[in-house]
Amino acid sequence: MVDVLSQNEIDALLAALSSGEMDAEELKKEDTQKKVRAYDFKRAVRFSKDHIRSLTRIHENFARYLTTYFSAQLRTFVQISVVQVEQLPYDEFIRSIPKMTILNIFEAEPLEGRMVLEVHPNVAFAMLDRLLGGSGTSPSKITALTEIETIVMERIFSRAFESLQEAWKTVVDLSPRLEALETNPQFMQIVSPNETIALISLSTKIGDTTGMINLCIPHVVIEPIMPRLSVHHWFVSQKKMRAPEEITALQSRLQRAKLPIIAELGSSVISVHEFLNLSPGDVISLNRVVDELLDIRIGEKLKFKGTPGTHRGKTAVQISEIISEGVEENDE
Description:
alpha+beta; Surface presentation of antigens (SPOA); six-stranded antiparallel beta sheet; FliN-like_C; chemotaxis; bacterial flagellum; cytoskeletal motor activity
């Protein structure tokens, strides 16, 4: 990253050049020299800035879907938003989370490998309290989950992965599935300690309780789809083709749609005075001769020409001519 000088530093540099304390030629030589930058192989940079931006966009949608889902399930105020998306070694992530927490280990086909959705105990127990009829407060002392509490947690977070599937739909069709629920990070080893992960931190507020939800995605898991996280793929890729069953369903719905069909015998123009004095037996002359074809409209659009008649004792019209698309109607 390029360092930006403050105005005081710029003034001091100009003053030193003017007084001769610094030589401009020496500064130029320093710029031409190769600069060495320290690189920590334990913190390998696997995700580019482009990848981080794409992950941020995807999980901003994930946060909105989660907000809607938890609000409906808990029937209380829920607010979830993305705080940070960063890359770091897996071991550093494990050391940063509480010793007692909620770890939802899951897989997402077609990706190979496991990921983790870590929920801070404050948030998890506030959800549990709300689901079991409480006001949604977190206990002062966090204890191990009972069997019933574990089942309740598994059910609510299993369905939460539907939000993750929806958020990733623009990149890849995932099928997330909860594999296990752990409470001790030391028992969870999904990748090697030095493996780079993408950590998406979500700030979560449930009623008056606040906490974090962290999504851990190892680089080795999403490496096959990394090219799809580039801006080039998002804006230049071809439109997604509809599945054959979607096309069939759409055609079926269109074929069942009902449209108004109108056969016009003709039209006429009379004065308001003549209209007010109409009585049974009066005859109104139309602008169409008896043997002339009728206009048949679908909605407001002229589509056919036809001949009036009867069919099985009912008034009918027989289609005699099809109006081609783009043919202009005659002014009448």
